[in-house]
User: Fold this.
Amino acid sequence: MLAKISSGNITALDIHVPFIETLRHSASQEGVSEKIHCLVEDMAVMNFPEASFDVIWSEGSIFIVGFENGLKSWKPFLKPGGFLVVSELVWVKREIPQEAQDFFDLEYPPMKHYEDLFPVIKSAGYEVIASFLLPTDSWWINYYGPAEKRVEEMRVKYKADGEVQQNLDIFQKEIEIYKKYSEYYGYYFYIMRKPA
Assistant:
C-alpha cells in the first residue's frame, strides 16, 4: 500500500525470511516490486548510513526493540525533518480489569497508557504530528477473525504436538481477552517528526 501511494522507494526489512518472500510475491502481483528493496535483516541492529530515510514506518513491531529504544536508535537514520510512524499496544483507560492486567503483565509487561508515551516521545527529541487509536474493526477484520479460523485448522493439523497446542491456547486466550476487554486497550498510532 505504501508503494502504491508514494512516489518514493521503500526499503523493507524483516528477520523472518517467509515474511520477506510473501512481500516480494505481493509486490510483484501488485506491480510495485521495482519500488521495494527487500532485506532479511534485524531491525535491532540496522546498518544504514545516517540520514538515509524520509520516513521510518514500524507498524505493530517496535515492541521487539522496545518503544523508547526504537525511538532513540532509529532517529539517526532519519533525515532532518523526517517522520517516524509507529503503532504500539497501549491501555486506553486508566482503570483496567484484573484479568486483562494479569494477561498483559505476562504477555507484554512494558505496556503503558497511551498518554504516558508522549513524554517518552518528547524526551527522544520528536514532535508529535498526530496520534490516534486504531478502530476495533481492524483487529477483527484483519487479524483476529482470520487468525481464529487458522487456530482451528492448526489444532487439527498439529493435534499430536503439545508445544504447538500450548501456543495455540495462549493465542486463543489473547483472542478471548480482546473479546471481553477491547474497550480498555488497543494499538495507538504515533506520527512523529525529527527536528529539521
The longest strand covers residues 78-91.
